């Protein structure tokens, strides 16, 4: 149903979408105007003698058609969530295209570090290149942070100077026809990895790879999350961030949560954090409290795989309050990594019949990332940049 035509509004906003244009643009069988809603619903209800459900009528409760529908029914919402959970080929095509736009925009950000004097410039660069590709909207407000700011998971300021910083984290995704992408990449501002930054980056990449190997129909998402935590624990023992103890002992202590506090990933589709995951934010186990997906994977689910490792003074202050957990941490070693802030690597993943397909094409290989950044610096020194897309 299209909005009724307002003759006065045409003067200010131009002609609205016509029924013929709507039929060509959308996957529907019939297009009518808002004025027809009441008669159509009345006819359907009389013909089939069935209930008609809708999400809500908050904006329409005083209109005639509201009497024909049942809003906010929980069983109906459950059915909608389950229907949205599994993506059809049309939806997957839109998701792949959104991911391709994000790939190009992330490449543009990595390739133009000399003109990024503050975090706002990073934000602007991503949005600019997304709009150039036809994506006028972002799936969510981009997270663009540098140095210690990267320890804030949903950083929103995006306006600090990058001067004197070493690390950058950008979490940004373009939207295409109401379908989302959600991608995070990290890089050294000068294209040269410092020892500690590269160590943590390699570890997060290993966390992502170890979780990725588990992705297939029938695997509980909680298990993938546990695998990522155990990979972090092994890496921290090797790097000396955790003291010598058994992997099981450290895992059971929950100390890894202070360095990897969020969930491994979430469902994605029309929403960045899509419906059907059924998280349990009251879970007494903090390792799973913020996990947005709490069910077995199914074919044609789309999920994000986004492990992270953070050195947050606020989280670590909490760790120090727990004697058992604090005793497992080598605090002097941790101090050497604080300048990084945090590393997160995020890709968009389709669960296939026997594994997965990665929609995200922008490289996460640390050597290739460094090469892209250095190439951009060299172009800047030669006198300018070209449009990446």
What is the residue-mean pLDDT, rounded to a whole number? 96
Number of strands: 10
Note the beta-strand portion: 5-15%
Number of helices: 14
How would a crystallographer describe the biggest sheet? 3 strands, antiparallel
How are strands sequenced across the largest beta sheet? 3-4-5
How far apart, in Å, are the first and last alpha carbons? 36 Å
Based on CA atoms alone, the radius of gyration comes out at 24 Å
Inertia-based shape? globular
Helix and strand succession? HHHEEHHHEEEHHHHEEHHHEEEH
pLDDT below 50 for ≥5 consecutive residues: which ranges? none
The helix content is 40-55%
Supply the helix-strand structural class.
mainly alpha
Compact description:
This protein is mostly helical. It has helices at residues 7-13, 19-25, 37-48, 74-85, 89-110, 119-132, 195-212, 221-239, 247-253, 286-289, 313-321, 323-326, 331-335, 366-381; strands spanning 53-54, 70-71, 143-146, 167-172, 183-188, 302-305, 308-310, 342-344, 347-351, 356-358.
Question: Can you put this structure into words, describing what you see?
Answer:
40% of the residues lie in helices and 10% in strands. The protein is built from 14 helices and 10 strands. The chain has helices spanning 7-13, 19-25, 37-48, 74-85, 89-110, 119-132, 195-212, 221-239, 247-253, 286-289, 313-321, 323-326, 331-335, 366-381; strands at 53-54, 70-71, 143-146, 167-172, 183-188, 302-305, 308-310, 342-344, 347-351, 356-358. It has a 3-stranded antiparallel β-sheet. Helix 5 crosses helix 6 (119-132) and helix 8 (221-239) crosses helix 9 (247-253). It is globular and about 75 Å long. The two termini are 36 Å apart.
